[in-house]
Amino acid sequence: MSGGDTREGGHESGPAGTRRQPAAPVDRDRLTRLLGDPGLAWLVDRVRRRMAREESLTGPVTLREPTAGQRAAVERLLGRAPGAGRALSVRLDAVDAVLRRSGVSPDGLAAAVTALTGPVPPLADVREREERAWRDAYAPLDELVRTRRPELADWAGRLRADGLVRRLARTPGSARSLLDGTAEALSRLPADPAVSLPAFAAGTFGNAHALDDGTPLATLVLSGARALTGFPDGGGAEWRREAWAAAGLLKDALSSTVLTLGLRGTPALDWSADEGEPAALTLRQLTRHPPRTAPAVVHVCENPAVLATAADTLGAACPPLVCLQGQPSAAALTLLRHLHAHGTTLRYHGDFDWGGLRIASALLRRVPWRPWRYTAADYRAAVAATPLASPLAGTPATAVWDPDLPAALTELGARIEEEMVLDDLLADLGGR
């Protein structure tokens, strides 16, 4: 074809066997000069949006603060000055009439815009295709839950509902790729034995930095890893390090530590136990050389003051004691899981306050333990023996090991730290 007109030959069958007349020819050269002017791009865009929404092409459309070029383009299109106000208003009916009368587009404005810019898919169809593409993007996660990680079903459902993947990936194609990587990583977790996070990323994705902080892939994999391990909500670099470590991925195997006293099973631990000295074990030590022996019972406390006082008072006679130093670290969890797996019974004590209950609950979600003077009855006895206890504050928490304990804290309203019951704890450790 040359010149200007584009004609479609033949006839098309319409509904119910009727024959539909072919579209009237559009003079493309004149159409490009008339409606294809850059000064009318805003007008063409408005028309396409109306067509996509399947709205009528009638009535005015308005452009605020038009340029001189946009005013001139409208003047050429309509054959008259469009006015001099701060806004430029064009009636679509008038444009349609110009295109039909001039023969540029005998079928009017919709046909002209389609010829000029291509077909306009209905917005409802576009949205349906996009939603279908988003549903398909989650296929790697669905496959992971169905075939390898059914325990992640609830997490995968929340991921669909909260919009995190859409915010991270923006498009269905990017989401599919992101979830492919997420599913591949989660199928290999928790890592046992533990490995460094960069080494795991390199082996899984061919890129040691694929799971660096802040990347969309790291965000999703860490979220899924926490669902696998039950690691609690939190934030900050230390929290992320511990969350990764709970899944067997070590960002820093040296800074995560746990304090012990009287524990044996390696040459260093044996020496410390013989000397009655506390030992600080790193996550690196515990993953490479865990204790070779497991005692029948290990007592676990929350605060270093308990362990330090036991070392001063009992020395080498102190039975195995482990200190969390607050929230259970990756090193502490690694040690306690190892001991539990080898038959050790863990006996836990912590502060009698809401924070203490949360720490105890976080530990219980990861490794079983039995209370060590850490029940409602023990709390009531401690309050009775401590008339100057500070008032309890903060948000209440639960205690699965003793449902009566939170009610007792609420009733008595006193905060009892471990240091206030040291004599009782040391008496237990000393066998009295």
UniProtKB/TrEMBL annotation:
Biased composition annotated in UniProt, kind: Basic and acidic residues: 1-11
Domain (DUF2399) ranges: 280-429
Residue ranges of every copy of the Conserved hypothetical protein CHP02679 N terminus domain listed in the record: 57-264
Region called Disordered, residue ranges: 1-30
InterPro entries: CHP02679, CHP02679_N, DUF2399
The protein's name in its UniProt record: TIGR02679 family protein
Organism the protein comes from: Streptomyces eurythermus
Lineage: Bacteria, Bacillati, Actinomycetota, Actinomycetes, Kitasatosporales
